[in-house]
Design a protein that fits this description.
Helices cover 35% and strands 21% of the residues. The protein has two domains: 188 residues, Periplasmic binding protein-like II (D-Maltodextrin-Binding Protein, domain 2, 3-Layer(aba) Sandwich); 116 residues, D-Maltodextrin-Binding Protein, domain 2. The chain contains eleven helices and twelve strands. It is an alpha/beta fold and 308 residues long. It is globular. Helix 7 links the parallel strand 5 and strand 6. Strands 1, 2, 3, 4, 5, 6, 7, 8, 9 and 12 form a ten-stranded mixed β-sheet that branches. The chain has a two-stranded antiparallel ribbon with strand order 10-11.
């Protein structure tokens, strides 16, 4: 199974990233830590956590602390979960709660934690041909775009962002299609570039947009809840270990060490402190005086539902 994972990593062109830089931000004695030195953790994650540079910023601390390497495989949420389903991942960091719940209900994921959040925004050219700027409702903005048949770029890749977009169209009662609607099958950065080239609208997570903003001429036209926009544009991220009962090659000890580290106060502070162009990209939510215990199980799950 190890050879299979190595072939998978090689096929998608991702190598191990080792680092001895940085110093530990967390407490705890060496005796409390699992003996994982020299091992490698495969993390499948959404493109936004990778493309924004967040993981490159925070991972050296974990790698030095445990003497390990983290292979961060950036995919859309759907592809990241599929890789984990196939046994090609140890831990998954994604942002589509419905898909995460399905993954857990089917037994592939365990020990889910809320990790952090930002929000989605609708961006487009400053000229705003459909006239959606400042619209208080995301579904109303999409309805206006569709009625005007203004160019819209969709990721079309089963990612968390694409899933959110489809949910918004459904809530608006619209089945998008036609020459004005283009599915790219690409990551968020590439979708933003295409929208920029075509003077089109698109849905983006705020973090990736901020990281790309200096290179494109798009602007935020409909804000998410971070800037008092509609709550429907909230973008929470979760993290889960791959179930070792399903895939015995999963490095469960290292996955749980990683989940414990990234949800700890030190790593959560590092996430909060990470900025680009003076703007915070992600907002931690793993450490709370009033934790939401629903985070550990699929939404709507109860002890009664497990008997049905």
């Amino acid at each position: 199974m190890t050879i299979q994972r190595r072939d998978f990593m090689k096929a998608i062109g991702v190598g191990a990233v080792a680092s001895t830089a940085g110093c530990s931000q967390l407490g705890g004695s060496d005796a409390d830590r699992p003996d994982v030195a020299g091992e490698s953790l495969t993390l499948t994650t959404t493109t936004s956590t990778y493309d924004t540079g967040l993981l490159d910023e925070i991972h050296p601390d974990f790698e030095e602390m445990y003497g390990v390497t983290v292979d961060a495989v950036a995919q859309g949420t759907g592809a990241a979960l599929e890789s984990a389903r196939n046994g090609d991942s140890d831990v998954v960091m994604v942002h589509a709660r419905g898909l995460e719940d399905e993954f857990m209900r089917n037994g592939y994921g365990v020990n889910r934690r809320d990790l952090m959040f930002n929000d989605f925004v609708i961006v487009g050219p400053e000229s705003d041909p459909a006239g959606i700027q400042g619209t208080a409702s995301a579904t109303e903005a999409l309805t206006t775009i569709a009625e005007a048949e203004a160019p819209f770029v969709s990721r079309g890749d089963n990612s968390g962002t694409h899933t959110k977009e489809l949910n918004l169209w459904e809530a608006a009662g619209i089945d998008p299609g036609g020459d004005w609607y283009q599915e790219t099958g690409s990551g968020m950065g590439e979708a933003l570039n295409i929208a920029n080239q075509q003077g089109a609208y698109t849905l983006s997570d705020r973090g990736t947009f901020i990281s790309q903003r200096s290179e494109i001429d798009l602007t935020i036209l409909v804000q998410g809840p971070i800037e008092d926009g509609p709550e429907i544009l909230a973008n929470p991220y979760g993290i889960m270990a791959v179930n070792p009962g399903v895939h015995d090659n999963a490095n469960y000890d290292l996955a749980m060490a990683y989940i414990g580290w990234i949800t700890s106060p030190g790593a959560q502070d590092a996430i909060s402190d990470y900025q680009m162009n003076g703007e915070q990209l992600f907002f931690p939510e793993a450490v709370s005086e009033d934790p939401d215990f629903q985070q550990y199980v699929p939404e709507g799950w109860s002890s009664d539902s497990s008997d049905q």
